[in-house]
Amino acid sequence: MLMLGIESSCDETAAAVVKCGREVLSNIISSQVDIHTLYGGVVPEIASRKHIERINYVIEEALSAANVTLSEIDAISVTYGPGLAGALLVGVNVAKAIAYALKKPLVGVHHIKGHIAANYIEHDSLEPPFLCLVVSGGHTHLVHVDGYNKFRIIGYTHDDAAGEAFDKVARAIGLGYPGGPKIDNLAKEGNPYAIEFPRAKIDGREFDFSFSGLKSAVLNYLNSCEMKHIEINKADVAASFQQAVIDVLLDRALRAAKKYGDGRMAVAGGVAANSALRAAIQQSCSKNGIELYYPSPVYCTDNAAMIAVQGYYMYIAGERSGLDLNAVPNLKLDFANG
Ligand code: KG4
Ligand code: ZN
Q: Is the CB of residue 184 below 6 angstroms from any atom belonging to ligand 1?
C-alpha cells in the first residue's frame, strides 16, 4: 500500500511516499527558514507563496526518489490543520486535485497526530498504547495514545508552547529564528545552573504546563542586567532557560508515564529534536524502567512522512475525506473520537 503524504502547515513544504504505513520510501522537505530568518519569524503570506512555488516540485521529487509514479500511489494524505490558513490551503488543494484527477482516496490528517505517528517510522515494535510527550512550536501536550486513531489528553500548556518559549527567548538574546536549534547549540557552552529560572506548577493540575512565566523571567533577567550594566553570558542564559524547560517537561512526563504510561513513553514534535532534552529523558526513563522512543531529528520537525504514516492508519481504519476538505487553522486536539 503506497501512501503519498503532503505537509504545508507552516514553513516546510514537504512530500513523502510511505509503504505499508512504516517504510519511508522518500521524504522530501523544502525548508523556507532562509527567507523567514530575515524577518525574525514566519511571515504567513510569504510562507503561502513559497509553498505554491515549491509544492509541485517537492511532490515530483518524492515520487521520483521513491521510484514510483503517481498512478501507483494508493491514497493521498494531507495535513489540514492546525497551522497557517494560507499555508495549509496549498497542501490541501494540491492533495484534493491529485485525489480528484486520479480518483484516489483522500485522508485529511491532524498535524499533531502526524507528529506522534513519526515514532512508528523507526520503531517497528512500537504499537499503542503508550504515552506521548508532544512538544512542538504550537503544542505542549501529554497524550495517551490508546490506539492508532484513539487519543486521550492527559496534560497541556495553559499558555506558551515549549517551542514558542524557545523561539521567544532566542529572539530576546539575539539568536534569531529558528530559536530552538540555536539555543540547543549555544547551551552546550553554558552552565545550566548559572541562573535560577522558575519551574512553574499549576495548582491541582499535576500534568499541565506553563511557560510564559519562565519566558518573562528570562526577559526580566536580561533587562535587569542591562540596567545594571552587567554583561550577559548568553550561553548561560540559554543553558539555564533550557534546563528549566527540560525539568518541567520531565517532571510532568514521568509522573504521567508512571500513572498512564504502560511502561512506555514516546516524544514527538520539533522540540523533541533538542539534544539536552533527549539525553535527560533517556536518563530518567532508564532510571525508572520506562522504555523510551523518539524519532530521529528529521522526523521530529515538520515532515510529510509522519503525515503519510498517520494517514495510513486512518486509511486502513476506513477514514476518508471528501473533496470538500478544508484547511482548519485552529483545529483542536479533540481526540475523544479519534
Ligand atoms: O514540530 P515543529 O517543527 O513545528 C510545529 O508543529 O510547531 O516544531 C517547531 C518548533 C520551533 O519552536 C523550534 O524552535 C523547535 O520546534 N525546535 C527545537 C529544536 N529544533 C526545533 N527546540 C529546541 N531544540 C531543538 N533542537
Ligand atoms: Zn509540527
A: yes
